[in-house]
Amino acid sequence: MRTPVIAGNWKLFKTIGEATSLVSELKPLVAGATGVEIVVAPVFTALSRVADIAAGSNVQVAAQDCFWKEEGAYTGEVAPKLLKDAGCSHVIIGHSERRQFFGETDQTVNNKAKAALDAGLTAIVCVGETLAEREAGVTFAVIGKQVKEGLAGLSVDNLARVIVAYEPVWAIGTGKTASDEQAQEVHASIRALIGELFGTSAAAELRILYGGSVKPDNVKGLMTQADIDGALVGGASLVAESFAAIVNYGA
Ligand code: PEP
Question: What is the pLDDT of residue 1?
Fold first, then answer.
């Protein structure tokens, strides 16, 4: 009943020319994919061109971040409504690289999520524990706080346009993937918490993606887990064939 989502985070890779080539190569490879939503997240400068090429296909476009103000004296920032204007339907918020290198907190994640939703975007809100936190046995507490504070004050209606991505920091770009069971138990805990906060039907409808070294050869196992509803893919989304193989995991 929950449509899976496969999202590719292109991070700080690809010129406009490379990004437009990648989406052009990707489109025919995923044209036959049904029952799955496909999203790609290029750098800001390539968004509008990639969105133009993706228009009319089953590939949707996300930004990798946004600010929470609509306009003003905020040099360097990009407002959610400008992302919509550029052709985005989604925005990634609170990726661990932004938390780690750019000082993002659960409060800024919350501000950004609210602003993105108000602008009509779907917010892909990322959460995840570090290796030290996992080893200290505080994974569930860390994730619980990130979910609770990141989504604080949202309405049940707004939650319908939220996708949560569970990305253990130790699995991002490292080649280490959480086992299917490790991922599933965290996803189940997120869904249970969403049930407490927003009600059981909102929880049943929420898509929760797994991210962290997802590749064509491990996506199937992850996708068989009851509470895993898709993937947020970094490295393997930079090559059309490997991203398409992940999208087509069920074929
Ligand atoms: C990511 O960037 O969100 C990610 C999960 O990267 P990778 O797939 O390379 O681990």
Answer: 85
Ligand 1 centroid to Cα of residue 244, in Å, is 16
CA–CA separation, 173 and 128 (whole Å): 14
191 token code pair:
């869904």
Alpha-carbon torsion angle 28, 31, 36, 42, nearest 10: 40
* Runs of H (alpha helix) within 73-179: 80-85, 96-101, 106-118, 131-135, 139-150, 156-159
Structure tokens at 207: 């898509």
Question: Distances from the Cα of 19 to the Cαs of 26, 97, 194, 247, in angstroms?
Answer: 10, 21, 35, 18
**For residue 125, how far is its CA from the centre of ligand 1 (angstroms)?**
14
Ligand 1: distance of its center to the CA of 199 in Å?
A: 30
Checking if the pLDDT of 123 tops 90, the result is: yes
Q: Residue 174: what pLDDT?
A: 87
The minimum-distance atom of ligand 1 relative to the CA of 236 is: 8
Instruction: Give the integer Cα–Cα distance in Å for 130 and 169.
Output: 5
Q: Known catalytic residues?
A: 95, 167
Q: Which atom of ligand 1 is nearest to the CA of 97?
A: 2
Query: Would you say 83 and 63 are in contact if contact means Cβ atoms under 8 Å apart?
Result: yes
Strand partners, 59: 38
Q: Which atom of ligand 1 is nearest to the CA of 126?
A: 3
Question: Is the pLDDT assigned to residue 247 strictly greater than 90?
Answer: yes
